[in-house]
Every structure is written in C-alpha cells, then in structure tokens.
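Recall that a protein's primary structure is simply its ordered list of amino acids. Everything else, from secondary elements to tertiary packing, is in principle encoded there. The following example makes that idea concrete.
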Amino acid sequence: MTLTQVEPSVPPRIQLLIVDQQRTFRDALAIRLRAEPDLMVAAEAQSAESARRMQAGRSTDVILLDAELPDGSSAAFCAEMTRHVPAPCVVMLSATSEAQRIVAAVRAGAVAWVRKEESIAYLLRVIRCVVRGETWLPPAELGQVLRLLIDDQDDRRGRDELLAALTPRERDVLFYLLEGTGCKEVAVRLQLSINTVRSHLQSLTAKFGVHSTLELVAVARARLEALPDRPAATSVAGSGATRSSLT
C-alpha cells in the first residue's frame, strides 16, 4: 500500500486595498501590513477614482479607506464598493472620531472606523475582526452613534408588523445578530453558506429601512420588545462579542 502525504492547507491571506491621499502615510502603512503573514496588500491608491480602476475585476477582502478624501468621495466610494457581491469590508481611517461622521460612514456601508493615531496592533485587530463579520467602532463614541442611528428611524412600524414581514430564516439570522454573533458563525450555526447569510442580511436591512448590519442591530434592538424566537434545534453555546463589536 502506498501512503500519500497530505500537506496541511494554508488559509488564504486577507487581501487589502489601501486608499489614502497622503503618500507617506499610505506607504508606511503598506510596509507594516506586508510584514504580517496572513495579510497581503494587493494595491494602493491615492484617490477614489484610481482605487475604482484598481478594483475592477479584483477580489478584495478589506479596503482601508481615508475618510477625508477630497470632495466627499470617501462615502460615495464606500457605498459603491459595498454594493458588490461579495462586498469588501470597508474600514474608515480618520484623524477624528465625530459621531455624525461615523454614522454617515456606517450608512454608506463601512464596518469599522479607526483613528489614524491608533497603534498598528489595534488596526491589525480590527482588520482580522471585520473579516470574521464583526463591526468595530470607537468605544467612546459607540453610545452616541447608536442613539443617532436609532433617532433617525421611523418608529411607526410596530414589533408584530416588523416580525411578520420576515421569513423564518431571516428571523433566525436576526436572532443571532442580536445576540452578538458574527456572520461567519451565523452561517455555521444555521448550516448555511456565508453568501446565503449575506443575502438574508441584505433582505433584513431593506425591510428595516437601514443601510448596514450595525444599523440593523441598533434599530432592531430599539424597535423590538424581545428577541425573535430562538431557532429550533440549533445550539447557541459559546456566543460572544467584543465591547465595541455588535455583529
């Protein structure tokens, strides 16, 4: 009998696109990120226009996007990229952390906001978390951001009407999101593909009239008096979330 040695599989590296108008910052960040064995800086761009050209036909996991691009192009580029299927995770990089600007980024589809003064270790943690389906916002601004997201919603639709508009599987997905479960873990628990979970998320955000998973969780918690029914015959042990992660 001939035995064939099977080489252990190597997880694919996280593909990154850096978009920042400051070349010095962009180059320094790229050098540091390239030192990480699980990351790959696939491209760098100084503007939304050049980044758009680089993205054509390219599969990117995470876009590190300068929140201060000229002419307000950051939000428009973020919204455009996050409409793709599969959509990259957009992490906004900024010199400030004003709640109103964070809310605008969330509505455009961003899943994280990181101040440029944060350490590289902090940014690395955020990158790896968002790839797992988590959302990451500055803890100091999180409460105000959630209040702004909730206050802007139309509260005329009641709990029963909202839940009645959801399919049974959408309720299951929403249940786990409200418990703090990430998208990839939701897929495992419900025995679905990650793309199917993302499709359910798109439907949920449309039905709740929101633009992102973070907004969905905030608004659902405010509008619903209780969690949807627990998914049948599915274990919920081991769920957890970081203090600034809601999805």
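The CA atoms of residues 159 and 223 lie 6 Å apart. Residues 194-208 form the longest helix (15 residues).
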